[in-house]
Amino acid sequence: GTRIIAIANQKGGVGKTTTAINLATGLAACGQKVLVVDLDPQGNASTGLGVSEYEMDVYDVLIGGVDLTKVICASDIPGLDVVPASADLAGAEIELIDIDHREARLNNALAPVLGKYDYILTDCPPALGLLTINALVAADSVLVPLQCEYFALEGMTRLMKSIERIRRAYNEDLDIQGIVLTMHDGRNNLCRSVEAEVREYFGDRVYRTVIPRNVRLSEAPSYGVPALVYDLACAGSQAYARLAAEMLRREGAG
Amino acid sequence: GTRIIAIANQKGGVGKTTTAINLATGLAACGQKVLVVDLDPQGNASTGLGVSEYEMDVYDVLIGGVDLTKVICASDIPGLDVVPASADLAGAEIELIDIDHREARLNNALAPVLGKYDYILTDCPPALGLLTINALVAADSVLVPLQCEYFALEGMTRLMKSIERIRRAYNEDLDIQGIVLTMHDGRNNLCRSVEAEVREYFGDRVYRTVIPRNVRLSEAPSYGVPALVYDLACAGSQAYARLAAEMLRREGAG
Ligand SMILES: Nc1ncnc2c1ncn2[C@@H]1O[C@H](COP(=O)(O)OP(=O)(O)OP(=O)(O)O)[C@@H](O)[C@H]1O
Ligand SMILES: Nc1ncnc2c1ncn2[C@@H]1O[C@H](COP(=O)(O)OP(=O)(O)OP(=O)(O)O)[C@@H](O)[C@H]1O
Ligand SMILES: [Mg+2]
Ligand SMILES: [Mg+2]
User: Which residue blocks in B30-149 are alpha helix, DSSP H?
Assistant: First the structure.
């Protein structure tokens, strides 16, 4: 069956989009069929995957009730498709308020494509509003990119409470798929002490694979390609390839 | 009179809060009376300024109509006060929808404190929702922290359009106070090329002072003090002190 994973963290700039793009590419490179759903009005996952010319996007699905299969775009990566986002999506948070079952719009929209993909990854905006809630209601589990910084650590409590609230109210199977440490710099004391605290508190839920700070990861989006395509040999790409493998092992272990 | 400056950028993690905390401290160190309004449900500006025990916060002002003077907290920095935020604020985006003049709640709430402060800085969440809109409607000008990265640059068009929309609809005096380059690393090609592009396009609106990437800036919040207090001699603090001086020169030049 299809596994739906929300990539979420309300803290801004922690590597949600970079993880969605490069983990999806890593999974596709392992022969998985993957769909990335861009739920962020910034549309960074869409441009980072080279998808730019589209007439309809996820806004039309959530608000207009358009069939999701009509807005799927192929990326240049074999086995990797994208449901793009546009700036209209910023209005969706307000427009969703008056719609019935507003929290389940994405969940219902994904029904026709279940079985066609091995993984569906949703890239969330930096907030706990109705777009992220839609992602959490539709998801089997949540992958949390975590920057080893104080403000990012401080935000984890709120994120865990929100996930718990969604689990109780809408999605009893929702669990934490894993926590991925991003922009990691082992020479930095703060980073090492945040890592130690996170591993102590969250234990095995923290991936062994750590994503290093690596400028090549931030250069790739300006060429509209994932880092694994831009520079497969760099430390950042290698880390995301390892992350994909570790995820498959964890998923396989069921 | 009092100058109200919104520190805004919908891109996450670009240094909005770090700029709000350390620019406010730099201005206070120059003898200015400063109020920081934390409009982010993450509450990072509140904890970064060491303000943690409070009964009411900006949520009670925006939604409950409580007098803003009742929620002002003194910080440990002479001349620097804080209107703190709490996680309740996340609900405000939805609760504001049905309130009259929802976009002007902060603007109206600040009226009683005009004249008591030289500067009011509002720290915005990473979104263009009703909280950021409230900050833009209340503001005389917008200070935009900009990370020299591709996704951050890509978001500038949308931000400028939003500011223009607010100017036309609600606040005809709103202008761009300045753009501050943050987490700058001169050895990084991407960073240098983004800087060149930004300076070419925005000209004098880009501050000469550039904030370098400096780990001491990210260590300070874990002690609940601004970097200027934690380590005044470090490159990050020195840059924010220069930024405060450059801002005063710009404002004085009127
Ligand atoms: N491991 C890394 N090393 C270096 N740069 C990185 C790394 N991961 C991400 N970046 C860069 O850091 C910035 C923030 O990352 P990204 O945009 O993926 O975070 P995000 O959580 O999706 O942000 P937002 O909250 O705005 O959606 C981007 O410019 C990205 O290119
Ligand atoms: N110049 C800098 N050098 C090194 N680290 C920095 C610098 N500026 C900010 N940081 C760190 O980077 C992270 C992001 O900064 P900050 O939280 O201020 O951004 P923000 O735009 O307020 O984020 P959000 O969008 O989540 O509100 C924080 O952990 C902060 O400590
Ligand atoms: Mg993102
Ligand atoms: Mg912030």
Answer: 44-48, 58-62, 89-95, 105-110, 130-138
Give the pLDDT confidence of B94-124 residue by residue, as tens digits: 899 999 999 999 999 999 999 999 999 999 9
A218 lines ligand 1 (CB under 6 A): yes
What local confidence, expressed as pLDDT, does residue B252 receive? 87
Which residues make beta-bridge pairs with A184?
A212
Rounded Cα–Cα distance for residues B193 and B145 (Å): 17
Which helix (H) or strand (E) element contains residue B146? strand B141-147
Given the structure tokens 């092992």, which residue do they identify?
Answer: A249
Could you read off the pLDDT of A89-144 as tens digits, one per residue?
999 988 999 999 999 999 999 999 999 999 999 999 999 999 999 999 999 999 99
Question: What is the distance in A from the centroid of ligand 1 to the CA of A14?
Answer: 6
DSSP state of B176: E
In A, minimum Cα distance to B148 occurs at A218
Contact A19, A211 (CB under 8 A): yes
Test A150 with B218 for CB contact under 8 angstroms: yes
In Å, how far are A65, A176, A254, B14, B62 from A202, measured between CA atoms? 39, 10, 19, 27, 36
Do the Cβ atoms of B14 and A10 come within 8 Å? Answer: no
CA of B216 to the centre of ligand 2 (A): 11
Q: Return the structure tokens found at B241.
A: 């002190």
Neighbours of B63 (CB within 10 A): 16
Distance from C-alpha of B152 to C-alpha of B173, rounded to nearest angstrom: 26
Q: Is-contact B71 B60, C-beta < 8 A?
A: yes
| Cα–Cα distances in angstroms (integers) from residue A232 to residues A143, A223, B190, in the given order | 23, 14, 18
Query: Would you call A218 and B44 a contact, using CB atoms and an 8 Å cutoff?
Result: no
A 10 A CB-CB count for B254 gives 4
Which of these, B158, B95, B115, B109, lies nearest to B137 by C-alpha position? B109
Place of tokens 């007098």: B67
* Angle, in degrees to the nearest 10, between helices A156-169 and A130-138: 60
d(CA B56, CA B64): 10
A77-96 burial, b at 16+ Cβ within 10 Å, e below that, comes to bebbbbbbbbbebbebbbbb
Residue A203 DSSP symbol: G
Amino acid making up residue A227? A
What's the CA gap between B21 and B229, in Å, rounded? 11
Which secondary structure element, helix H or strand E, spans residue A229, and what is its range?
helix A227-230
